[in-house]
Amino acid sequence: MRYYSTNNRSSLVSFREATIRGQAPDKGLYFPASNIQIERNLIHEMESLTNEEIAFRVIKPYTGDTIPEEQLFSIVSETVNFPIPLVKVKENIFSLELFHGPTLAFKDIGARFMSRCMGYFVKNSSRKLTVLVATSGDTGGAVANGFENVEGVEVIILYPSGKVSPVQEKQLTTARKNVHALEVQGVFDDCQQMVKQAFADKDVNNKLFLTSANSINVARWLPQQFYYFFAYKQWLDKDHPPVISVPSGNFGNICAGLLAWRSGLPVKHFIAACNANDVLTEYLQTGILRPKETIATLSNAMDVGDPGNFSRMLEIFMETEPSGHQGFGSLNDHLSSSCISDKETMAIIKEVYQQFHYLLDPHGAVAFLSLDRYLADHQKEKGIFLETAHPVKFPEAVETATGIHIEIPSMIKDIMEKEKKSILMKADFKELKKYLLR
Ligand SMILES: *Cc1c(COP(=O)(O)O)cnc(C)c1O
Predict the structure, then answer these.
(1) 388 Cα–ligand 1 center, Å
(2) Which residue of the set 60, 107, 170, 233 is catalytic?
(3) Which one of 29, 99, 100, 138 would you pick to mutate in the ligand 1 pocket, going by the greatest count of ligand atoms within 8 A of its CB?
C-alpha cells in the first residue's frame, strides 16, 4: 500500500514514511493510493470476532509490509484495550461510547495506535524523533498518554495557559519521562503558530528530527475506522444499517467513518454534526469551501474554521472509478451536516438527562441533536451518535445544564492527585526555539 499527497498524486510513499512525516512536504495530506475493500466475510463473521481481530483485519491492508503481522497485532491490541460499548439512549438512538480510554476521549484510539507505530519505526534508528504538537485540550492529553514510555520518541506539547479544563490540564502535565508540557501565555492559535514556525526553522530542523501528531497523520487517522466496525458488530438490526452522526471539527473522525463505509462497511447515511463553525454546511449548500475565523463554543474540540481533513473527504467522494463513472455520486446523498448552537446544546443535555437519564457531553450533545432531527424526517431509520468525550471533561457546561454534580471516574482520580509539571512560556517563537535547542 502506498500513499499519495492530496496535492500531488504522483509522489508515492509507504505507510512508514507517511507516518513519520505526518504531512506531505507539499502541504497536502497523505491518502491511500488503492481503494481498499474489506474481506466480505469480515462483515458476516464480525459478531464472532474480538475487537482486536476486527481491528487487525481492518488496518492490515493500510500498513502493508511496513509492520510485521505479529507486531501489528500487538499494536492493535494495545490500541483497543478498553470497552467501546453501544448504549441505547432512546428507541431509535444509540450512543457509541468512545470515552472509556485512558484520557476519556476518542482521540485515545488514534494517539495510541500512532505512538506505537512511530515507536516501532524508530526502534532501530539512531535518530530520536521529536513530536511537536499544539493542543486546545483533548489532543494533548491523548498524545501525552499514548507516547509515555515509547522509546526513541520525545514529545513536546504546547497548550494555552488557563484555556483547558482542569482534567485536561492534569492529563497534559502529569505524563513523565519523554513527555514535556509547555504552558503558553496565549491562546491556542498562538501555540499552533509557534509549532508552525518551528517546523519551518532551519536551526531547529538541523538539530531535531521533528514530526507532528495532529489528526492529519495517517497513523492517527486510519485506526479511527475501528470503532465504526465495532458499532456495526453491536448493531442488532443488520438488515437496516444505522445512520451515523459524528461530532465534527477537523473532520478526521468522520472521514475515517466514510473510508470504512467506502471499504464495505454498511452505513445508511452520515451526519457531520457541527457547532457554530459551519464551513461544511455552507459547502454542502453552495459547493464552495470558504474557511472562516474560528468561533468559540461549548464543544470547543470542534471549534475549527478551516477543517484540515476536508481534502480527504473530497478524495473519498470525488474519486472516479477506473471505468470512468463517478464512484459514489454526489456527496449530498450520503452526507448531511448540521449546525447546533450553544443554546441548543445546553437544552438537549438537560432534556436527554431528564427524559432518558443519559448524560451527554457538549460534543456528543451536538451529534445527538443532529441525529434526532434527521430521524424526525426519516422515520424508518435508526441511528448511532458518537459520544467522543466523557462529560467530566466539560463539567461546567454539563453541570449547569443538568444541575447535577459529576463524579470524577475512579480511573482518573489518580491523575488528579499527581503534581502538575509544565514550563511556562511567553507566546513567542524565540522562547520555543531556545527551549528546543537547549
Ligand atoms: C477532537 C474532537 C472532536 C472533533 O473530531 P474531528 O476529527 O476533529 O472532527 C469531537 N469531539 C471531541 C471530544 C474531540 O476531542
Answers:
(1) 7
(2) 107
(3) 138
Predicted local distance difference test score (pLDDT) of residue 124: 78
185-221 pLDDT, tens digit per residue, is 998 889 989 999 999 999 999 999 999 887 789 999 9
Mean pLDDT of 32-39: 95
Beta carbon of 107 within 6 Å of any ligand 1 atom: yes
Instruction: Tell me the domains of the chain and their CATH numbers.
Output: 83-106+221-402 (3.40.50.1100)
CA 314–ligand 1 middle distance (angstroms):
19
Give residue-wise pLDDT tens across range 220-264. 999 999 999 999 999 999 999 999 999 999 999 999 999 999 999
CA distance linking residue 229 with residue 260, whole number of Å: 8
Q: Is the CB of 362 under 6 A from ligand 1?
A: no
**Residue 380 known to be catalytic:** no
Say which residues have a Cβ less than 8 Å from residue 430's Cβ, sequence separation at least 6: none
CA 323 – ligand 1 centroid, Å = 36
Phi-psi region of 324 (alpha: psi -120 to 50; beta: other; left: phi over 0): left
Pick from 40-44, 61-65, 69-73, 408-412: least confident: 408-412
Threshold 0.90, pTM exceeds: yes
